[in-house]
Design brief:
heterodimer; A: Immunoglobulin-like; 4 domains; 6-stranded mixed sheet; 5-stranded mixed sheet; about 30% strand; B: mainly alpha; about 70% helix; about 0% strand
Chain lengths: ~425, ~170
């Protein structure tokens, strides 16, 4: 049974109506003042235009249903959608206005198709760097043909999120994580998967990678068969985002945080797919944490936390972060810290986390690709400035390496360095504690 | 919003633009500004309005009628007292409404779907023109015209204050 319907959106006159009525009134006033009947005749229909819009008749409660999906891969983002307009409103009278997330660029203008009483649309965007961003709901309004009156169409909008992260992260889940506790909650220790000990043969799915297909068995059976493996999944991982401002300026800091959130979403996705437990912390002034857990619900929790991650106005002290992390997470859990390391605070945070017993791996999105040429500098000076910035960063990373292994993330579409580092536990550097 | 229509946006407005161009030519030919000046004013207003109406930004499209109204107003203000000038100005006002309904970024045939939007003002213009020229001159038509104008202004004031009165939908009784 449906509850009480929400009140209908109010009817509103558009700016064009005021332009026409104002023009009409002005023409009539001038016509009277100048005793010029032609102006009266010109002004009369303009003055009556709103009456025409009223006579056309606005539906009391226009409603529509939206279905949409994100398609494409890598930097290509295609949003396909369909808006079903419920009678008595007609699709011809419905206008759709799209908003583009700021992190995405437009590849081509939105394409809109009208099919009966439905409106299909395709939005072609491009992600220039990894991102996780919600797609704003399109604004759907009913309007008369002349566009003088409008009323918002009531519509339930399913949430849609664009997630683009480096492709290497899709196989990060195969990395064996350190066990944090002997019996990590509801996480099953053994399951069937893509790697591990041979378990059996099953029908191959259409999307099966060739190396998983058992070609000999397939040749004997006359149909594609794939190998199954029994694997152990016992690890936990904590993803910690440094959302404090650095000296790079708010715009660059926000972009670096966006990159970190996208990478964290990719890492979490990869490990959760393999039933590992994943926790997330976003530290700005205080810690916003999602405790360790596994499963689809945890994926949603993590996504929600990453979507609301914003650059903090004031930077919290690093010790506060370490203390808060220790309260929320068990020591010893593999900790991946996403920090640009643009300021000294990032280094201090690593020290405090290690002291509290968290083995840290640092993924540092480099601010160097975000640097824009300065108009006051010549080309030679620009090159010099860039070299100096690179040297300063290299020096900083070298100092951080004394505390924890660092992945210098400069090519934003590749995190192969992180996957390699996690695959070779011997390279993790110093242990915590 | 963009439609995947096979015609470019400006082409779809050509019929109403052509009608407005023809009316501008007629007004320019009777205006006291001189034909060349009047024609230049009329066509300039038309061209600017046409370009604004196909702009991608919505705020430009919403003010597209302004240059057209300005040029038509200038021509009408300089027109002599004649039945031709008056009916041409009236028809031009109605055609402006038809051109607005022919929005190139909305489904085609808006000018037909929105016929009520320009038909009702067109009827009023026709009645006013016929009554001013065919009825015998007396004080009565002036009173009727004044009353009609006052009623229009009151109706507009009510509608602007409460647009919900314009709302349709199913009847409350069966």
């Amino acid at each position: 049974m449906r509850g009480t319907p929400a009140p209908a959106a109010p009817l509103r006159w558009r700016a064009r109506t005021f332009l026409l009525v104002g023009g009409g009134l002005l023409a009539i006033a001038l016509g009277v003042a100048l005793t010029q009947p032609a102006l009266l005749f010109l002004g009369l229909p303009l003055l009556l235009a709103p009456l025409g819009a009223v006579v056309y008749g606005a539906p009391r409660r226009p409603e529509a249903t939206l279905t949409w999906v994100v398609d494409g891969s890598g930097p290509i983002v295609d949003v396909e959608g369909r808006i079903e307009v419920a009678p008595p409103a007609r699709a011809e009278d419905v206008e759709v206005r799209f908003a583009r997330p700021p992190a995405l660029a437009e590849r081509s203008v939105p394409r809109v198709r009208r099919e009966g009483n439905a409106i299909g649309f395709t939005l072609a965007w491009r992600a220039d760097e990894p991102t996780i961003v919600p797609v704003p709901a399109p604004r759907v309004v009913w309007s008369d043909p002349a566009g003088l009156l409008e009323r918002a169409v009531a519509m339930e909008v399913p949430s849609l999120v664009v997630e683009r992260y480096p492709p290497e992260l899709s196989r990060i889940g195969t990395v064996r994580l350190e066990r944090t506790i002997a019996l990590p909650g509801e996480t099953r220790s053994r399951r069937i998967g893509a790697t591990g000990e041979f378990f059996g043969i099953r029908e191959a799915a259409p999307s099966e990678p060739p190396r998983r297909v058992n070609w000999r068995a397939s040749a004997r059976a006359g149909r594609l068969l794939a190998n199954e493996f029994q694997l152990d999944r016992t690890g936990d991982v904590l993803l910690l985002l440094d959302a404090r401002p650095s000296g790079q300026g708010r715009a660059n800091d926000a972009r670096l945080l966006g990159l970190a959130a996208a990478a964290a979403a990719g890492v979490a996705d990869g490990f959760l797919r393999e039933k590992a437990r994943v926790g997330v912390g976003v530290f700005g002034e205080f810690l916003d944490a999602v405790p360790l857990a596994a499963g689809r619900t945890q994926r949603l929790r993590i996504r929600r936390t990453l979507l609301r991650a914003r650059l903090a106005t004031d930077a919290g002290p690093p010790e506060r972060c370490a203390v808060a992390v220790r309260r929320q997470f068990p020591p010893g859990v593999t900790t991946i810290l996403f920090s640009s390391l643009a300021g000294d605070e990032g280094e201090h945070l690593i020290t405090f986390l290690r002291r509290r017993g968290f083995p840290v791996i640092v993924v540092s999105p480099s601010p160097l690709p975000l640097q824009r040429p300065d108009a006051l500098l010549s080309a030679a000076e620009e090159v010099l400035v860039h070299r100096m910035a690179r040297l300063v960063r290299r020096d900083r990373l070298a100092r951080v390496w004394q505390e924890a292994p660092v992945v210098d993330w400069e090519d934003y579409w590749s995190l192969a360095g992180l996957v390699d580092l996690l695959r070779r536990p011997g390279r993790w550097g110093r242990r915590a504690g | 919003m963009t439609d995947s229509r096979w015609l470019p946006p400006i082409v779809r407005t050509l019929p109403t633009l052509a009608a407005l161009g023809a009316l501008s030519v007629v007004l320019a030919s009777v205006a006291r500004l001189g034909f060349a000046t009047g024609l230049a004013i009329g066509l300039a207003g038309l061209a600017v309005a046409a370009l604004l109406s196909v702009a991608r930004e919505g705020q430009f499209r919403s003010v597209a009628p302004a240059p057209l109204l300005l040029s038509l107003g200038t021509l009408a203000a300089s027109a002599p007292l004649s039945a031709l000038a008056e009916i041409t100005a009236g028809v031009a006002g109605v055609t402006v409404l038809a051109w607005i309904a022919n929005d190139p970024f909305r489904p085609p045939w808006g000018v037909l779907r929105g016929a009520l939007g320009w038909g009702v003002p067109g009827l009023a213009v026709g009645l006013a023109w016929v009554s001013s020229f065919l009825l015998p001159p007396s004080a009565a038509p002036v009173g009727v015209a004044g009353a009609l104008l006052a009623a229009t202004v009151i109706a507009l004031a009510v509608l602007f204050a409460e647009p919900e009165r314009a709302s349709g939908g199913p009847a409350s009784t069966i």
